[in-house]
Amino acid sequence: MKHYHTKQRASTRIGPHPTFVLQLMIGNLLGDGSLEKRHNATRFVFSQEAKNQEYLHWLHTQFATYGYCSPQKPKQYKRIGKQNTVRWTIRFRTWSYSNLNWLYDAFYTPISQKPLQPYVQDKTLSCLKPRKRIPQRLYEWLTPMSLALWFMDDGSVSGNPSTGGLKIATHCFTKQDLQRVQHILFMKFKVCSKLSFDKSQPVLVFGQKDAAKFAQLILPWVHPSMQYKLRFVKSKQSI
After folding, report:
1. Residue 160, pLDDT above cutoff 90
2. Exposed / middle / buried, residue 97 (Cβ in 10 Å: 0-12, 13-18, 19+)
3. Helix, strand counts (H, E) of the chain
């Protein structure tokens, strides 16, 4: 295991990265995780609602154990939501790594530095952020463990619980991205899915039969605090 510290230069934090850590990274990037690229180095940012603190602290422990972030307990942050409701989130970041820029480039679309019209001077252009996308090489990278991380972040019951279906909130991805994911899920894991729409954005949906197959595929890597998301799945094996 490698152990890094805050005073070490990003260019000297080099691999090889453990397969376990890369699977965590890819699964979270498909879900709620994000990347920040600055000074030619990339770092991960993880954030969850405080109600999911057991899962977030477990995730933090994995990265801290491998020396990717500070071992100090992540802090809670207050956010003001709609209608002035108070929401608490927990967030932590990893150190920055110059040799993780490839992962940033794979998951994010580049933003053109040129304005749409040369005569338009809009300060908001500098605040635009690259949009997440499904990497071209996801077929090679996707594993049951990565799928489990994705589901723990964004998965839930689909429709009426009695149907035993599941869905993954994939609002940040395009329809074309998700069609690629559907192909990968079927070709690699023999799991069928369909696209539904929530607020005009596509989401992945699994019917009863495929939800059961999907659940059994990811269950070994689902944290106990997140197994409630699978409680309505119809399966021969108890979840």
Report:
1. no
2. buried
3. 7, 8
